[in-house]
Amino acid sequence: MSAGPSQLAFSFEHDPGFLVRTFEKASGRPVTLVLTDNSSSMLSIRKKGTVSCVRLHRMFLCADEGTLTEIALFIKHGRGNMTRFRAFLKKMSGVVRRKPARYFPVRTQGRYFELQAIFERLNEAYFDSKLTSVITWGAGTQRKAVRRRTLGSYSGNTNIIRINPAIDKKTVPAYYIEFVVYHEMMHAAMGIGEKDGRRSVHSRAFRERERLFKHYDKALRWERTGRDKR
User: For residues 194 and 192, what is the distance between their CA atoms, to the nearest angstrom?
Assistant: First the structure.
C-alpha cells in the first residue's frame, strides 16, 4: 500500500509496536491500536472488557515520549488536561490539513439485493445496532473472476462499506451476500490493529468472530464451489 500525502510529510521516529508498549506500560491495561488518517478524530478510546481499543492519528508515530505517556494516562483514567497532546496538535497543524467532505453517491438498491436492509439486520443481530457505517454498492469491475478480497471494502477514514456489484446476481444466495457484508462490518467494528509492528487486518480474534456468522460454513462452501449444497 502506498503512503498518502500526509504520511509522507511526517518523519517517523517510532514503530506502532513502540506506541502499544508505551501505552500498556503507562496505563497498566492491554491496548489494541489502530492508526488512522482521520484528521476529524485524532484520538478515540473504547473499552472492551479489560482491553482499551485506541484509534489514533498516525502522526503520533513521531510524537515525543512525554506526549505518548500523557495519552497513556488518558487511556488509564479517561480524563486529563492533555497539555502536551494539544501542544503537539498545534505543532503539527501545518502538516495535517482537514479535507472538505467529498460527495459520493450512495446506492443501496441493487438489481437483486438491497444492502441497507441487510446491514440493519446484521447490525442488530451481531453488533447491538452500534455500527454507523454507510453502505453502498461500488462502481463494479470488468473482471470475470472476482476474488473474495475484492468483493467488499471498508474505509475507516470515511466509515463507508462498499460491496462489489459483481455479486448482485440471481445466482448468488442471500446468505453469501450477508456474509460479505458481515465481513466488512467486522472491519468497521474491529478496525485494523498492529501486531509486532505490522498491520493486522485479519487477526485471530477477527477470524474467531467471523465464525459466529450463522451461515459461516455454508457461505465458505458456496464460495469454493459456487453451488448451494443443502
Answer: 7
Question: Residue 109: helix, strand or coil by DSSP?
Answer: strand
On whether residue 110 sits in a domain, the answer given is no
CA distance 54 to 62: 17
Residue range(s) defining the domain that contains residue 195: 115-225
Say how far apart CA 97 and CA 115 lie, in whole Å. 33
Instruction: Reply yes or no on whether the pLDDT at 104 is more than 80.
Output: no
pTM of the entire structure?
0.53
- Examine residue 128 and state whether it is found in any structural domain, yes or no: yes
pLDDT higher than threshold 60 for residue 142: no
In a domain, 122, yes or no: yes
- Written as nine digits, the cell of 48 is 472492551
> Quick check: 68 and 60 in contact, CB under 8 A?
yes
Give per-residue pLDDT as tens, 34-75: 888 776 678 888 888 888 888 888 888 888 888 888 898 888
pLDDT at 176: 96
78 and 145 together in one domain: no
The total of structural domains in the chain comes to 2
The pLDDT mean for the chain works out to: 79
How far, in Å, CA of 173 to CA of 57, rounded? Answer: 39
CA 23 to chain centre: 20
Over its C-alpha atoms, the chain yields an Rg (Å, rounded) of: 20
Q: Which of 31, 78, 79 is nearest to 56 (CA)?
A: 31
